[in-house]
Each structure stands twice: as C-alpha cells, then as structure tokens.
Amino acid sequence: MKAKLILENGNVFEGEAFGYIEETVGEVVFNTGMTGYQEILTDPSYYGQMVVMTYPLIGNYGVNLEDIESSCPKVKALIVREWASKPSNWRCEMGLEGYLKEMKVMGLAGIDTRALTKILRNHGTMKGIILAEDAPVEEIQRKLKIFHNDDAVQKVTTKETYRIEGAGKHIAVIDFGIKENILRSLRKRNCRLTIFPADIEAEQILKVNPDGIFLSNGPGDPKILVKTIETIKQLIGKKPILGICLGHQLLALSLGGDTERLKFGHRGCNHPVKDLINNRVYITSQNHGYVVNKNSLPENVIITHINLNDNTIEGMKHRDLPIFSVQFHPEASPGPQDTAHIFDTFMKSLEGGFKCQEIIA
Asked: Which family is this sequence assigned to (predicted)?
C-alpha cells in the first residue's frame, strides 16, 4: 500500500506502508546504527518518535523475543529504505513486518532515507505525519501543530514500585523509561534493586535506605520534569548517585547547570567519546536530543567526557561527592560494550572512602 511522510516544513516522501497500517504523527529522528533495530524499537527513550534508519537494509535477521528493551515498541513509526521480507538468522522467531503488525507500529519503506536524513541534519529534528490516504492540507497542519511529547516520561515509567532481589548492594532506581539491559547490567553485579516511578518523592527513596541511587535514561526534555529535579536536589549529598542519559541531564539541572536542545540529536551506536580523565576514546551507544550546556556547570562539577563529533558534554562528576553521570549508554543494546565499566565504577563508589579522581576509572 502506498503511503507518504509529510514533514512540518512541507517536504513529502512517498513510499510503501508495511507493518500496522494506520495514520501516525510523531517527531522524526534518525539513527545511524547498522544493526539493533529491535532494541531501538523497544527503547523507551524513543517514545513519540518516528525513527529513520540510515542503514539501507533493515530486518534481515528478523526479530526474537529475548532482545527487547521494554515490554513493547515505543516508537511511533519505523522508516527504512528497504525491509527484508525473508529474514535469516538462527535466533529469528518472526519477521520485522509481522512484529510491527502485532505491536501496532507503522512502517514506511521505499523512500530516500539519505535525502531525509540530510534534511533533518540541515534543518533539525521536526514533526512528521505518515498517511496511507490523502487528507486536506489544513487537517494535516492541525495534527502536526497539536502533537507534543511533553508527557513522554509519564507514559513509559513504571506505574508502581517493584523489586528485583539480589545478594549485593541495594540500588534505588528512578525509572524515567529504563532499558532492560540497564537492569540486567545491575543484576549481573548482584545488586538488589528497588525501581521507583518517575514522580517518586525523595523521602520515599531514602526510607528504603539504599546503598546508592540510579537515575535512568528516558525520553523528552529534562526541564519539563520540574518535580523530579527538586527530588534529586534533596537526594544530593545523601547517597552515591549515577545518572545515564536523561538521568545525566536531570542531575546537571539539579546541581545548578542548564540543558539545551541539539539540532538533530545523537542517535546511533558509533559515537566517539573521549574520557578526559584517563585520556581514552570509546565508541558509544547514544540516544538523546538534549545535552548539558558546557558553560552552565558550577565550579564543583568537573567535565569528564566529551563527544568528539561536536565537543558536547558526555560525562561529569562532582568534585567532593560520590556523584557522576554520563550522557551515553554504557549498557549499549544496541552498540559496543566499551564503557560497561561505568557500572563497576558505580559499584566501587558504593563502598565509600574513594578519592574523587577515582570516580571515573
């Protein structure tokens, strides 16, 4: 079936609909990963977004039920140059189109994804609508105008507090849209986890007396989460804290810094990041549209990592407190495992008595 993507700037891309055929509106973003489409589809940080895959062939190894990063896809649509109708992989349990149909996610194929990516790079991320049938211009403009993603975190966070047992350190996790591999990474280190909703109060977290606090990844603009920022402020100085992605941005705001929107974001599993403390470069997995403003951080916060593509902040730590965060995803999924040691560093911080320069090791 024919379908078209219409961007808010008026650009139109015509292609073939696949998956679940239904009109959908969202924020159009691009991901530069060659693989990992299944993890991308189910990453809660993509809530409300239409993901354009820059790699031309998607779906060739199919889908399995083990590699998902949340209970179901969070994207509004998947946009590709070509999708593989006959996947081949020993772990494959179903094809991409069948998965999208079952999960009610719109797919669009057969368009020039290179040209679309160039538009997003040149003009910035923008809203878009995918239609299988023609509609009046006024109606399209109205739908694009009213779409917003302000409630994204509320849509993907856990509704109730729950626990995962373990024999090691007790970590309080604030879930802004946490990926399963973050939980797996903490469980791998024998952690006992208490996972809280995004709107949790500081006193409820401190009541369970955790050894440390983890601020998860998640979608959207961190400045919208005013209540959460106040909660984190009350937790600073009480327990060791690690933040990842949105958690990193929220921590920066809580420490007195500021955040800003990127033109087209960082989304992919091939972003080079330099560790300024150890003078090393890592290839990282990333998915975010906002960053910490490098000129906004107070004097008691040190920049530890930078992105080598645009010099934006990728990591920071407090000079005196066991608090640090990174913008990239050390748990990957998809992506390289170069920075999985971040979790080990967090475990070390829970022991207490460490030196500041050893926080990022």
From this structure: Belongs to the CarA family.
